[in-house]
Specification:
This protein is mainly α. 56% of the residues lie in helices and 6% in strands. The chain folds into 2 domains: 111 residues, Rossmann fold, CATH 3.40.50; 44 residues, no CATH class.
Length: 163
């Protein structure tokens, strides 16, 4: 699954001529919700990556309410993030998100959530993008203070260990 924050950062990489991940994303079954589509429309991301490229996960309001009764702290998230958390509990999947709070919530219920740089490192390991492309992205993210310096250092170390 792909959250709005991560897609916005993917768009940012493209806009800065660093890396275009759209064709690679098409190789995965990307799940989104109606609420995520609304956010993508709000941020004008639908022209960059169409929701039609994704699997739309059906969610009822009562599903979200039941989840929030079970996990009251999920109410602190916006509705789009709540729908991703619900979908994550129903599907065998991973959230790609640059929202640390959302990732922590996913991990708190035993589900997998990763930051965009972790996904990029996975893509290098799979031979889908080059280490050099990710190095440029990490340098850019460091320059614009997108992530904590300690995290960027960790990602660089992970990247350097790939043979």
């Amino acid at each position: 699954m792909l959250d709005t924050c991560a897609l916005n950062h993917i768009w940012e990489l493209h806009e800065n001529n660093l890396l275009d991940l759209r064709a690679i994303l098409l190789q995965f079954r990307i799940g989104i919700t109606k609420e995520i589509v609304k956010e993508w429309e709000n941020y004008d991301l639908v022209r960059f990556f169409s929701p039609s490229n994704c699997y739309l996960l059906p969610i009822l309001d009562q599903d979200i309410e039941k989840m929030n009764i079970r996990f009251p702290f999920f109410r602190d998230f916006d509705v789009a993030d709540q729908t991703l958390l619900w979908a994550l509990m129903q599907e065998s999947s991973v959230i790609i998100s640059d929202d640390g709070g959302l990732n922590a919530a996913a991990l708190s219920i035993g589900k997998k959530a990763i930051f965009l740089p972790d996904f990029c490192i996975f893509l290098v390991k799979e031979g889908l993008i080059s280490k050099n492309e990710v190095r440029k992205a990490l340098k850019f993210w460091e320059r614009v203070h997108r992530y904590r310096l300690s995290e960027i250092k960790r990602w660089r170390n992970s990247l350097n260990r790939i043979t």
